[in-house]
Design goal:
The protein is built from 20 helices and no strands. It is mostly helical and 514 residues long.
Length: 514
C-alpha cells in the first residue's frame, strides 16, 4: 500500500466513498435526513479540492525539477506524472495520467455536480427515501466523468464513459411522476448504448491500426506516430477507428447529427437533474475529444480536421434552426446546446494552441447552463418535465431577480458583448481562422446572429409581456422564489457570467498553463 500513489485517483476515491456513505447513512438513518445532502455535497467539494491539490503538486514538481536542473523546463507540465511507485522517469502510467488538464477538468466536473445537487435540493427532498439513491448516482456520474479525463488508456476511458452513462440513464428517469420521464430514460439508454458500442468498435480499429490502446509512454499511440508515418494495417482502418470514436463522443456532447436524443431527454427528465446531464457530460466529452484528437491523433489533423469542421458547422446550423421553432425552454436549451457543441468543435483544428480557448468556452457555457436550468427548476418545478414559454411570460413582475438572472444567462449564451459567451466565441473563431477554416467561422457568425432571436425572445417574454393567469393550464400557480441553495447557485453563476465577460483574463491566464 505504501507504494501506491493515491493522489492521481484521489477525486474518484472520494466521490465513490461518498456514494457508499450516503447509501449506508440512508439505510441506517431512514428517509428525510439532511445528512445525505451534507455527505454528498461534502464529497463533491473534497473531490474538487483534491483536484486543486493535484495542480499544486504538479507546480511543486516543476519547481523541484527546475532547481535540480538549474534551468527552466521546456517540456509542458503534462510531462510530469505519477506512477504506482511515485514520481519516475516515465512520462505517464499505462492507465492514468495526472496533469493540469485533468486537474482542471476535475474541478469543473465536481463543481458542476455540486451546484446541480445544491441548486436542486428540493428535488432530493421530494424523492423521499429515494433521495439517497439520487445523490449516490450524482456522485457515481461525477466519478465516471472525471475518470474519462484522467484516462491514459482507451479502455479506461470507455469504462469512465459507461460508469457515468449508466448513472445518467437512471437519473433521466428518476422523476417517474411524468410519463415522459420513463420514455426519456429508455431513449437515452438505447441510443447511448448504441453510441457506446460504436465508440468501443472504434477503439478496436485504432488498436488494429497502431498496435496500442495507451496514449502516452513507450509503445503508445503517440510513440507509434512518432516512429511510423503509416498505420500497421491499411490506413483506412485507423481512420475508421478515429471516426467511430468521434461518433461515440459526438453523441455524448449532443453534436449534430447525433443530437436527436437531447431535446426529448431534457424535456422528459426532472428539471432539477438536467444541469448535471447537460453540463457535466459536455465538460467530460469535450475534454476526452481534446485528449484523443489533439493529443493522440494530432498528427492526423489533415484527415479528421475537415470531418470535424463539417460536424461543427452542421451542429451550429441544426441547433440554431431547431431552437428557433421551440415553445418549451428546456427543448430550446437542448437545441442551443447542439449549436454550442458546434462552436466548441470549431476550434479543434487549431490543435494545441486552441486548448485554452476551448476550455474557456466550455467552462463559461457550463456556468450559464447550470444557472439557466436552476432557474427552470425553480419556475417549472424540480420534478416537472415540460417548461412552456407561457410560464415565463411576465416573470419580471412575479420574480424580478429570477428574470434578471435568466436574462443574464440568455444574453451570455447569445454572445452579447460584456458577457462571457462573447469572449468564448471570439476565441474559438480566432483559432479556426488561424487554421484556415474561415468558412466555418462565417457559418458560426451567421448562426450567432440568428440565434439572438430565440435568446432575446425569452427576455421579451419575461420583461415585456403580461403574465399568464394562475389558473391557466400548464402554468405555475405560485410566484417562484429564490432561496437557499438555488439562490446561491443562481447568483454565483450569473455573477461569473458577467465577471468573465468583463475581465476574461482572470480565467484565460489560468488556462494558459495547460
Amino acid at each position: 500500500m505504501e507504494n501506491i500513489a493515491f493522489l492521481p485517483i484521489g477525486p474518484e476515491v472520494v466521490a465513490l466513498a461518498g456514494a457508499v456513505l450516503v447509501l449506508m447513512s440512508a439505510a441506517a438513518l431512514g428517509q428525510g435526513r439532511r445528512e445525505w445532502g451534507v455527505l454528498g455535497a461534502l464529497a463533491l467539494l473534497v473531490a474538487a479540492i483534491v483536484s486543486v491539490a493535484q495542480w499544486m503538486r504538479l507546480d511543486s514538481l516543476q519547481a523541484a525539477a527546475e532547481l535540480a536542473s538549474g534551468r527552466e523546463l521546456t517540456e509542458p507540465m503534462r510531462e510530469l506524472s505519477f506512477s504506482a511507485r511515485g514520481v519516475t522517469g516515465n512520462v505517464y502510467t499505462p492507465m492514468v495520467v495526472m496533469d493540469r488538464f485533468s486537474a482542471l477538468g476535475g474541478v469543473v466536473v465536481y463543481l458542476v455536480a455540486f451546484f446541480s445537487l445544491v441548486g436542486n435540493w428540493s428535488l432530493v427532498k421530494s424523492l423521499g427515501k429515494r433521495g439517497a439513491e439520487y445523490i449516490a448516482l450524482i456522485l457515481l456520474a461525477a466519478a465516471g466523468l472525471h475518470m474519462m479525463l484522467i484516462s491514459s488508456n482507451l479502455i479506461l476511458l470507455f469504462m469512465g464513459l459507461e460508469t457515468a452513462s449508466i448513472a445518467l440513464y437512471v437519473i433521466a428517469g428518476f422523476a417517474r411522476v411524468e410519463r415522459n420521464s420513463d420514455e426519456s430514460s429508455l431513449k437515452y439508454f438505447l441510443l447511448g448504448s448504441f453510441a457506446s458500442a460504436i465508440f468501443l468498435y472504434g477503439i478496436a480499429l485504432v488498436y488494429a491500426g497502431t498496435g496500442s490502446i495507451t496514449i502516452y509512454g513507450a509503445g503508445s499511440i503517440l510513440d507509434f506516430f512518432r516512429a511510423n508515418p503509416v498505420a500497421i494495417m491499411d490506413v483506412g482502418v485507423l481512420l475508421a477507428g478515429i471516426a467511430m470514436i468521434l461518433v461515440g463522443l459526438a453523441f455524448k456532447i449532443s453534436a449534430a447529427p447525433f443530437h436527436q436524443w437531447a431535446p426529448d431527454v431534457y424535456q422528459g427528465a426532472a428539471s432539477g437533474s438536467v444541469s448535471m446531464m447537460a453540463g457535466g457530460v459536455k465538460v467530460a466529452g469535450i475534454a476526452a475529444l481534446i485528449r484523443l484528437l489533439i493529443e493522440a491523433f494530432g498528427t492526423r489533423v489533415n484527415d479528421w480536421g475537415p470531418i470535424l469542421a463539417v460536424v461543427a458547422a452542421l451542429s451550429i446550423i441544426v441547433g440554431t434552426i431547431g431552437a428557433i421553432g421551440q415553445a418549451d425552454l428546456k427543448r430550446m436549451l437542448a437545441y442551443s446546446g447542439v449549436a454550442h457543441a458546434g462552436f466548441m468543435l470549431t476550434a479543434f483544428v487549431g490543435l494545441g494552441e486552441a486548448v485554452p480557448e476551448i476550455w474557456f468556452y466550455v467552462i463559461t457555457y457550463v456556468i450559464q447552463l447550470v444557472g439557466a436550468f436552476t432557474v427552470v427548476s425553480i419556475v417549472s418545478g424540480v420534478r416537472s418535465g415540460a417548461s412552456s414559454f407561457d410560464e415565463y411570460r411576465g416573470l419580471f413582475e412575479r420574480s424580478p431577480r429570477l428574470a434578471l438572472a435568466l436574462a443574464v444567462f440568455m444574453l451570455g449564451m447569445g454572445g452579447i458583448p460584456f458577457f462571457s459567451g462573447f469572449v468564448g466565441k471570439i476565441g474559438v473563431f480566432r483559432e479556426a481562422i488561424a487554421a484556415d477554416y474561415l468558412w466555418v467561422v462565417i457559418v458560426g457568425l451567421i448562426a450567432a446572429v440568428a440565434g439572438l432571436y430565440f435568446y432575446l425572445r425569452v427576455v421579451v417574454l419575461m420583461f415585456f409581456e403580461a403574465p399568464v393567469t394562475a389558473d391557466a393550464p400548464g402554468t405555475a400557480k405560485a410566484a417562484p422564489r429564490l432561496s437557499g441553495g438555488s439562490g446561491f447557485v443562481v447568483y454565483l453563476t450569473a455573477g461569473l457570467t458577467i465577471l468573465l465577460g468583463i475581465v476574461p483574463w482572470l480565467l484565460l491566464n489560468l488556462l494558459s498553463y495547460l
